[in-house]
Amino acid sequence: MQVSPPRSLTELFLGFLSIGARSFGGVMPWAHRVMVEERRWVTPADFTETIGLCQFLPGPNVGNASIVLGKRWFGLSGSIVAFLGLMALPFIWVLGLFIVYSDLSSNAALKAVVTGVGAAGAGLFIGTAVKLGRALVKKPAALALIAACFALVAVARVSLLMVVPIGLGIAVFAARRGWL
Amino acid sequence: VSLVELGLYFALLSLVSVGGLPSVMPEMQRFVVDVKGWLTPADFIQAFAVGQAAPGPNVLIASLIGWKVAGLPGAFVALGSICFPAAVIAW
Asked: What are phi and psi for residue B18, nearest 5 degrees?
């Protein structure tokens, strides 16, 4: 497939702006559509690889993708432009929605919508956890680590800032011993 | 004071948010609701739901929390501080 990277910062900004503007229900499908299908900035394989890298890094996945791709094409200014383009419209939408919602919080129908969406979002998280967990069922050490993290974070409410580094340490140790 | 506190804490969260924002959501809730009492549990669910329903990266929940804590400056500080450290690493 013939790819043509964005030629100017304006094009880069508009591309990411159009991703952000339409990204109902998750940014990733729209990022793929704009960058791979519509504008042909990157190949499908390249897109998958970049997103994979960004999922491994800390921080919002698509935000990181905008930084990485912006840098590749235009250096620092590319990163800044891509990131701002991605965030600008959703930032305004979300605050606008929130202001409207605060004003109408006595409206029962609107309240029901927000509760429903909250429940759906929570369900999605659980679904993701199950999907990720399935790959680990046959490894008792991994299950023990999952259970310990859950108990600490959800039950004992220990700060994640403690749990993540300690959990990582244990995981590295266990992996070296061949338990994972 | 709470603006600085919010910024520093979100910047820390940014560094442990491996796998994306969902992984730090419980910690965010614990901090802003249980520890600081900036938001009620109902506020947090509302922010979460609006963040999910609106288009855009779900990191925007950070800006909603910032908004609740300190208005528009809070929204900018929260979003900036949760994105910046991770962005530096990505770069």
From this structure: -65, 130
Residue A23 structure tokens: 């990204």
A34-93 pLDDT tens trace: 888 888 888 888 888 888 777 777 777 788 888 888 888 888 888 888 888 888 888 888
Alpha-carbon distance B84 to B76, whole Å?
A: 12
- Both tokens of residue A123? 């369900």
Structural tokens at position A13: 């900004």
Residues of A in contact with B60 (CB under 8 A): 87, 90-91, 94
Burial class for A45, CB neighbours closer than 10 Å (0-12, 13-18, 19+): exposed
Mean per-residue pLDDT, A155-162: 77
Contact A73, A5 (CB under 8 A): yes
Q: Chain-centre distance of CA A7, in angstroms?
A: 27
Tens digit of each residue's pLDDT (9 = 90 or more) over A99-111: 777 666 667 777 7
User: Does this complex have an ipTM over 0.95?
Assistant: no
The answer to whether the Cβ–Cβ distance between B22 and A159 falls below 8 Å is no
**Nearest 5°: CA angle at A14, between B50 and A6?**
130
Residue contact B49–A118, C-beta within 8 A? yes
Asked if B64's CB is within 8 angstroms of A21's CB, the reply is: no
Tokens of A90: 């959703």
